[in-house]
Amino acid sequence: MHRFPVRFTSLVLTLAALLAGVRASTNGDNLLGIGPTARGLGGTGTAAPQDALGAISGNPAGLSFLAADLPAESDVSLTFFVPHVSARVDALSADSAAKTYLIPSLASAGPLGAKDGPWQYGLAAYGVAGLGVDYRHSAVDTTLGPTPYPLVAGGRTQLQVLEVAPSLAYKVSPEWSLGLALDLDYGQLTLGGPTKSGFAAGLQPGVVFRPAAGFSLGATYVSGKPVTYRGVTDFDGDGTADNLKLEAPQQFAFGAAYDFVPGKLLLLADARWVNWGGAKGYKDFDWQDTWVYGLGVQFEAIPKQLVLRAGYTFGDNPVKTHQNFNGTGAPANVTNVQGKYVNNYYYETFRVIGFPAVVEQHLSFGLDYRLGAHATLQAGYTHAFKHTITEQGTNLLGTPTTLSSGLSEDSFELGFKYQY
After folding, report:
1. Which has the closest alpha carbon to 228: 249, 241, 244, 248?
2. Distant-in-sequence, close-in-space partners of 196: CB < 8 Å, separation ≥ 6
3. Is 201 within a domain?
4. What is the pTM of this model?
5. Where does the pLDDT of residue 30 fall: very low under 50, low under 70, confident under 90, or very high at 90 and above?
6. What's the rounded mean pLDDT across residues 321-331?
7. Can you tell me the distance from the alpha carbon of 211 to that of 420, in angstroms, rounded to the nearest whole number?
């Protein structure tokens, strides 16, 4: 029997420490796949995960169909994430502080019991979501000239979520597998003041069906996971820090994969529905549900040594625009955020500038280079093309104002897989 790695707990604690700098945003604030393999395939793999990280995070039923010649596997990877964020308030513009954020991930999987038995275990820890900006000491963080008020709310924000996912898969038959992951989330949120944290738990069931040789279908559901961040910011300006409940949204994902040339050319397609509009916190700031579509291709360029990957993903920007909003300081011009009333101008600057999760298109590449019978070196690159949203309305003084945010992203992945 293969056992969970003895040092997995210490590795998770190390990962949590590294995660403290993450503020990545892709489709909404969800990362586009976990690890270099899934990210190199554009986040696809619901029907045919290609490694332990991809299976545990993407569809735990896929654990049953990982390589059978070496049934156990350990993965470790690091993503170097570089967002490029900018904002404009009328004639004033600024770039968010430029940094590179490190997103680690690790996983272990193998048979639970006999090598050829129906049960497989998985255990993984990874950064699953993040978002943030830092406009401190910039043009949009100042009080200038005839505007005796801060220009924006949300000039410094940061959200990061670490997920630990123990998983099981049961191979019902050579064609069918069922899987279940217990998702344990630890989140940290900063909204201008001290960082607050909280925990949540959810479930991810999944299924993989192989109706014919080389053809796979998969589906998975991710339950919502609400975290309450206590005393995170003063929404209504009464001098008391307020709570915010922020829920990782429920999701459904469906996928198909076809091995056009067995062992050589694999094509994958995924569709994922993300319920931002029904998730606490996100619905309060008027995010909308989105569909995310992905295509991936994997080609074995050198038999048993070099595998190449590419992927493309499109998902609508979930942040709605509110044209002609009334942000004057009248008592009626407010929005209810979980029982607290926020002036419309600051509500809109927080939505558009404080949390600009607006990118829509991603292009990715990746490769595996086998170092020997057991070890594989992995690498990847993903680019999120720049997308901008713009709103027009009035500020606190009743003067017409224009708010705008743009976001693009680059990420580089390095990983190591060991099979045994």
Report:
1. 244
2. 188, 189, 190, 229, 230, 231, 232
3. yes
4. 0.91
5. confident
6. 93
7. 29
Task: Let me know if residue 52 belongs to a domain.
Answer: yes
Residue 358, burial from CB neighbour count under 10 angstroms (0-12, 13-18, 19+): buried
**What CATH number is given to the structural domain containing 19?**
2.40.160.60
Q: Is residue 352 part of a domain?
A: yes
Q: What is the pLDDT of residue 319?
A: 94
Which string of b and e fits 298-329 if b means at least 16 CB within 10 Å?
A: bbbeeeeeebebbbbbebbbbbebbeebebbe
User: pLDDT for 349-394, tens place per residue?
Assistant: 999 999 898 999 999 999 999 999 899 999 999 999 999 999 999 9
Question: How many domains are contained in the chain?
Answer: 1
Q: Which domain holds residue 302?
A: 8-415
The answer on pLDDT for 146 being more than 70 is no
Amino acid identity, position 73: E
> How far is Cα 284 from Cα 273, in angstroms, rounded to an integer?
19
Cβ pair 251, 221 in contact under 8 A: yes
Strand partners, 377: 369, 416
- Asked if 22 and 102 count as a contact pair (C-beta separation under 8 A), the reply is yes
